[in-house]
Design goal:
Pfam families: SBP56. The protein is mostly beta strands. Helices cover 7% and strands 34% of the residues.
Length: 510
């Protein structure tokens, strides 16, 4: 039975669902809760206010054991879990996992989390950022985690079973979660329960977590789905497309290219009416992944990475009120031998923008580098920093680079504190002040197994990269390492990172 068939039937359980509703006091600013503590609601009034918020001291990280049969060396399967990592340099448990919240099911593939409330609710004193919403790419389950009772030891609040999503929304393969200023949570989908592509959105009540139904109007789902970002002052939301789940769940097959099985569009939605207004074609098999508007809520500009192309497009509003996109960055392919294709794309899988809208950071999962661009002029980004932290082309590996427009030779294997790092940089998170960039290297289990089997065997890491915010520049902090290869349940793969008080990839200003 395929992964998407299992998800559709909701068979992958090891225990029953749980609901544990406890008290939820306001989060402490000591651990980076955010906000001014003056009864004005969660988050910050402006992105620049957020830049002056407290330094991060905790990070929540989904740790993936899906499909790897680890189970602390027993060969049995183990559930994914949410790790709490201490990143306070003054703490005795610095760079350590201090808590693990194990999920009650196996093979969930925890993915991109979001909050019940963020800076889009700033000004509403009745709102608290105290629930982390964890959608699952594999099972289409949704976990809601209580982070308000004890930030250092989150607990499970409730579980939304996939059958409810299937029945009420006809959506599956859940990806991105964002809170809305309306008091709701919205989660994007990549497909339907049968594994077909479907770019729709699940709407939850942010207090009760009742599944309210679809955000999009009937028959208005996009052809494909993945990530999204909204900008209320321009009455717009833009979503992206990965591909058709029933093809990508078994790995990346080059034979699927050129057949409409991977995404190519930016889909532009009317934020008020929930209607699909236009689709911007970025080219066949471009696979637009992560998308971000500039944080300034008045800005009508944003960036999106196209994974298979190794490109970045700047999208923006035109004088006639429509939207368009221009290619502004193109990372050249490398001609290689020993890889599954004769040309190796960068596979730029993640991207974020600093809160002052000055810098964009991008991870190239296959090539192995993290890049910093000055986007002061979004029409003409400038590369100002780059660092190599893994990838597929280190010396001594199976891949030989035959022609490289950027490098004179293959980089050395990446080592830190005596530990060889396998895999390529993937998920990124930036400190509020923009001075520290955190990196993990899990993408998606079937693709991890295919591209980086050593990563699955050895587990992933979290790195910290020091950022020059004056002139630009990146440098790996050699004193910082969180090694998920030594976890008690076996080597785990770390995915997206969240601070208790919000961050530049979960907060949207209305």
């Amino acid at each position: 039975m395929s992964i998407y068939q299992q998800a559709a039937k909701g068979l992958q359980t090891v225990t029953g669902s749980q609901t544990m509703k406890g008290s939820s006091p306001q989060m402490s600013s000591k651990d980076g809760a955010g906000g001014c503590g003056c009864g004005t609601g969660p988050g910050y009034a402006t992105p620049l206010d957020a830049m002056n918020g407290p330094r991060e001291r905790l990070i929540y990280v989904p740790c993936i054991l899906t499909g790897t049969g680890t189970g602390a060396g027993t060969g049995t399967q183990a559930p994914d879990y949410l790790a709490t990592v201490d990143v306070d340099p003054e703490s005795p448990t610095y760079c350590k996992v201090i808590h693990r919240l194990t999920m009650p099911y196996i093979d969930d593939e925890l993915h991109h989390s979001g909050w019940n409330a963020c800076s889009s609710c700033f000004g509403d004193a009745t709102k608290k950022r105290n629930r982390l919403v964890l959608p699952c790419l594999g099972s289409s389950r949704i976990y809601v985690v209580d982070t308000g009772t004890d930030q250092r030891a989150p607990r499970l609040f409730t579980v939304i079973e996939p059958r409810e999503i299937f029945q009420k929304c006809d959506l599956a393969f859940l990806h991105t979660s964002h809170c809305l200023g309306s008091g709701e949570v919205m989660i994007s989908s990549i497909g339907d329960p049968r594994g077909n592509a479907k770019g729709g959105f699940v709407l939850l009540d942010a207090e009760t977590f009742e599944v309210k139904g679809n955000w999009e109007r009937p028959t208005q789902a996009a052809p494909q789905g993945y990530d999204f970002w909204y900008q209320p002052r321009h009455n717009v939301m833009v979503s992206t497309e990965w591909g058709v789940p029933k093809f990508f769940v078994t790995g990346f097959n080059p034979a699927d290219l050129g057949k409409g099985r991977y995404g190519r569009r930016l889909n532009v939605w009317d934020w008020t009416t929930h209607c699909l207004l236009q689709s911007i074609d970025l080219g066949e098999d471009s696979a637009p992944f992560e998308i971000r508007f500039l944080h300034n809520p008045d800005a009508a500009h944003g960036m999106v990475v196209c994974t298979f192309q190794g490109t970045v497009y700047h999208f923006y509003k035109t004088q006639d009120g429509s939207w368009t996109a221009d290619k502004v960055i193109a990372v050249p392919n490398k001609k290689v031998s020993g890889w599954l294709l004769p040309e190796m794309p960068a596979f730029n899988t993640d991207m974020l923008i600093s809160l002052d809208d000055r810098f964009m950071y991008m991870s190239n999962f296959i090539h192995g580098d993290v890049r910093q661009y000055d986007i002061t002029d979004p029409f003409c980004p400038r590369l100002v920093g780059r660092v190599w932290v893994g990838g597929s082309i280190p010396k001594g590996g199976v891949v030989t680079v035959l022609e490289d427009p950027e490098l004179n030779g293959q980089p050395d294997p990446f080592m830190i504190q005596g530990r060889r790092v396998y895999g390529g940089p993937q998920m990124l998170q930036l400190s509020l002040d923009g001075k520290r960039l955190y990196v993990t290297n899990n993408l998606y289990t079937p693709w991890d197994k295919q591209f980086y089997p050593e990563l699955v065997r050895e587990g992933s890491v979290m790195l910290q990269i020091d950022v020059d915010t004056e002139c630009g520049g990146l440098c790996v902090n050699e004193d910082f390492l969180v090694d998920f290869g030594k976890e008690p349940f076996g080597p785990a793969r770390a995915h997206e990172m969240r601070y208790p008080g919000g961050d530049c990839t979960s907060d949207i200003w209305a």
